[in-house]
Amino acid sequence: MDEFIYRDGALHAEDIVIGELAEAVGTPFYCYSAATLRRHYNVLDAALADAGLDTRLICYSVKANSNLAVIATLAQLGAGADIVSQGELTRALQAGIAPEKIVFSGVGKTAEEMRAALSAGILQFNVESLSEIDLLADTANSMGKTAEIALRVNPDIEAGTHKKISTGSAETKFGIAWEDAEAGFAHARALDGVEAVGIDIHIGSQITDLTPFRRAFEKVADLLARLRADGHEIRRLDLGGGLGVPYGRDNDTPPDPNAYAQMIAETLGDSGCQIMLEPGRLIAANAGILVTSVVRTKQGQAKNFMIVDAAMTELMRPTLYDAHHHIAPVHENAAAVKNWDVVGPVCETGDFLGLDRALPVLEDGDLLAIFAAGAYGSVLGSAYNTRLPAPEVLVDGKKWAVVRSRPDYQALLAGEAIPDWF
């Protein structure tokens, strides 16, 4: 559920008319709804509470949408942050996330990033290899600190999602092999500078069936019992994220958060551990839209093309993941409907936002909204073809603000230089 609704034929974000925003900031632009962000976080938190999971921490996955205003909206609700870089650490702290609620994930942490996170006093590092444990131990020892870690173990479970966002099978780069998990914990226990306090898993993203989660969590419960029998004091279970969201297709029907929380309670509720989750898409996706203007229409021999001023530079997901996003006019339109490929101006055949979409015949300058663009929209954006990055707007009731401005070309080129020998 989101706060993008039509009133009197005009699409609104909460109490703000999208067409008026387009006039004020220009297209293309992203629009985020603060009420939707809050609702999605609160629904998940309430589901966990209702399932009896009282010791819990929801760490918003910053990679889904790293805008400072989005993170700050969630920080005000008490959210933590799941980060994968020093840059995301900087963003989380600046947006008001308490360091003791920050978890550092990712396979490629450097010593510099480790030092920054240790200096900030983050809660936990999710480590993914023995060599990473060694580096973190050395880094923490050099600073006179002890890093609390969870070992990310790979349960070798197919999540049933797109192969590029499936992370829990043995073929992916993520985590320590399941068969090596106990040896990994023993390795950490022998080192100064690190303390292994948790198990971490993450099997993928946009998962719409609870079965893979249940299988993974049952394996975690078994591993937890074996580790405790071996004397390890495990007090946190980081279960990752990955719960799917509706993108506007009939088969995009994700599980109810209450069913998800109940399944966690059934498999791990008696563990005595703090339950940690890392939702990103679940919170941010349907809290944002991408608004674009029609540049022109073009009727070809085989296809009708609706050329708009947004492109793969604003929304990479359709060409990267074959992803579907619902597309609709910003102003309800009774014109005759045709099938269109909605495409951008980038010089790539793969530059499309939607294929074979039933849309009315629109005029140049008419507005379209591309829904569920709040996650993996702006963060995957680029300036390819020297296109100016789209601005981002946050709406909160009757208030709105530009929370990332569109640069001009001088700002875009400011970091480049022509060598002085030219």
Topology readout:
Blueprint: E1 4-7, E2 10-13, E3 16-17, H1 18-25, E4 29-33, H2 34-50, E5 56-61, H3 68-75, E6 80-83, H4 86-94, E7 102-104, H5 111-120, E8 124-127, H6 130-142, E9 147-154, E10 176-177, H7 181-189, E11 194-200, H8 210-229, E12 236-238, H9 257-268, E13 274-277, H10 281-284, E14 288-299, E15 304-308, H11 317-321, E16 327-329, E17 337-343, E18 352-360, E19 367-370, E20 392-396, E21 399-404, H12 409-413
Parallel strand pairs: 4-20, 5-6, 5-13, 6-7, 7-8, 8-9, 9-10, 9-11, 11-12, 12-13, 15-17
Antiparallel strand pairs: 1-2, 2-3, 4-14, 14-15, 14-19, 16-19, 17-18, 20-21
Helix pairs in contact: 2-9, 5-6, 8-9
- CATH homologous superfamily identity of the largest domain: Alanine racemase
- Under CATH, the topology of the largest domain can be stated as TIM Barrel
Mean of pLDDT: 94
- What is the oligomeric state here? single chain
CATH class of the largest domain: Alpha Beta
Radius of gyration: 23 Å
CATH architecture of the largest domain: Alpha-Beta Barrel
Largest sheet: 9 strands, mixed
Determine the number of helices (DSSP H or I, runs of at least 4 residues): 12
Residue share in helix: 25-40%
Alpha-carbon distance between the two ends: 57 Å
Tally of individual domains: 2
What is shown here, in short?
With 422 residues, this protein is an alpha/beta fold.
Question: Mind explaining what this structure looks like?
Answer:
This protein is an alpha/beta fold. The chain folds into two domains: 4-32 and 285-413, Lyase, Ornithine Decarboxylase, Chain A, domain 1, CATH 2.40.37.10; 34-282, Alanine racemase (TIM Barrel), CATH 3.20.20. The chain is 28% helix and 25% strand. The strands form three sheets. Strands 4, 14, 15, 16, 17, 18, 19, 20 and 21 form a nine-stranded mixed β-sheet that branches. It is globular. The chain starts with a strand and ends in a 9-residue tail after the last helix. Mean pLDDT is 94; it is low at 161-169.
